[in-house]
Amino acid sequence: MNTLVIARQPTSPAERLRDAAATALIALLLGIPMIGLTTVDQGGVLRVASRWPALLAFVAACFAGRLLLRYASDLLRARRLARETAAEATTGARPAAGGALLTGIGWAALAVALLLPIVFSDNRYVVDTATTVLIYVMLGWGLNVVVGLAGLLDLGYVAFYAVGAYTYGLLSTQLGWGFWQALPVAGAMAAAFGIILGWPTLRLRGDYLAIVTLGFGEIIRVILVNWTEMSGGPNGITSIPRPSFFGLPFKPPGDAPTFASFFGLDYSPNQRLIFLYYLILGLALLTNLFVSRMRRLPAGRAWEAMREDEIACKAMGINARNVKLSAFAIGAMLGGFAGVFFAARQGFISPESFTFNESAIILAIVVLGGMGSQLGVVLASLVLVLLPELGRDFAEYRMLLFGAAMILIMIWKPGGILAHREPTLRHRRPGDGR
Question: Which of 62, 184, 197, 240 has the fewest C-beta atoms under 10 angstroms from its C-beta?
């Protein structure tokens, strides 16, 4: 059977030059107010100074970079087209993506994560940054259930993050609950709020759903700011107890047994930091295992089917209401778990930690990593957390570099860093032995 292969053909040199020139023009227009002009203080008077050489270098770099990017993209596209054409000519099927390679990368990443606090035990900054990455990984995996698997655009995911954090903050400071006691309760509370959000939005799709979820996130933030008796208002909740190791606190030796005295170790503040790192790593791994298993269950397969074609799912008898509510509830529960850890780690929470900017970052992690891809969320979290950290030496251009990096990644990989992911189910073909 002949197979029709439709692919975008490589562009000509003239087309590449025109595209690079258009990119340079856009860089010039954007760069004039951001790079070409600046304000300086001259004798107490604020004056405008020009930096045309820096602007020219920026425009030239954009032109050359776009030209090289298009050339490399065309070269890779031509090679991929040639491989797929050759594979279809011999086997009649497209070559499968390297699932084994992705599995190997995942195991290597796990090994690095386990050894990182041991190798950098004396470097508080590295361990603390890695902990932040893992928080966003856990949040990304939670939102991936709603957006990547179920196909429901959620711009207010930070609300469930806040619900989990404030639930633990209130239970611990008002009732004296411990971390492990409050964790399931906070997850259940966040799941309940997920159902509250999902119920009135069952008939909404696309932009309308995004607007409603955005409003829900803002409602939660406004409530936290104004309900002073419950949330503490703008002042937040302080003195939130941190988790201990089976009742052994990470404190200097005293009358009560501590972690250091129980194991005969010299006390170090980094011990608590390393324990928190392994705690969020364990929670993140459990989240990954839970989501991966859910994908293979009927509920998980229904999420993906609903994402592809809701009308066909209804025609097959799938209860769209329950499927959507389950996705909202489970995604919210995972966000609530991450919020509990955030509150326990910081010891202080306030509404300023749960703004729309956090929802945008989490959604960017899911989209940038490749919707539905678990490993892609990890890679995107590394990019979005580490890039601003690496750009601290370029304070003036930090966010400019950050935005440019995101744009380049999406141009290079429009479907995300790992747009491909292994199918949930595989069907054996007769005689292939698989």
Answer: 184
Per-residue DSSP letter, 414: T
Q: Classify burial at 207, counting beta carbons within 10 Å of its beta carbon; exposed 0-12, middle 13-18, buried 19 or more.
A: exposed
Structure tokens at 107: 């195991």
Whole-number Å distance between alpha carbons of 58 and 66: 12
Torsion of CA 346, 352, 354, 356, to 10 degrees: -150
**What's the token pair of residue 180?**
């492990």
Nearest to 116 by CA among 281, 341, 263, 267: 281
Q: What domains lie within the chain, and their CATH numbers?
A: 13-86 (no CATH), 106-412 (1.10.3470)
Beta-carbon contacts of residue 349 (< 8 Å; ≥ 6 apart): 165, 166, 169, 236, 237, 240, 342, 343
Instruction: Determine what percent of the chain falls in helix, strand and coil, rounding each to the nearest 5.
Output: 70, 5, 25
For the question of whether the overall pTM of this predicted structure is more than 0.85, the answer is: no
- Given a contact cutoff of 8 angstroms between Cβ atoms, the answer to whether 49 and 39 are in contact is yes
Give the whole-angstrom CA distance, residue 23 versus residue 67. 9
CB contact at 8 A, 141 and 147: no
Count Cβ neighbours within 10 Å for each residue of 291-308 and write b for 16 or more, e otherwise.
beebbeeeebbbbbbbbe
The rounded average pLDDT for each run of 10 residues, N- to C-terminus, in the chain (434 residues) is 45 81 85 79 78 86 84 77 68 51 76 86 86 92 88 87 92 88 92 88 78 88 89 86 80 74 75 88 92 86 83 83 88 93 90 86 84 82 80 63 69 64 55 49
Structure tokens given for 392: 């601290």
Which residue shows structure tokens 């309940």? Answer: 192
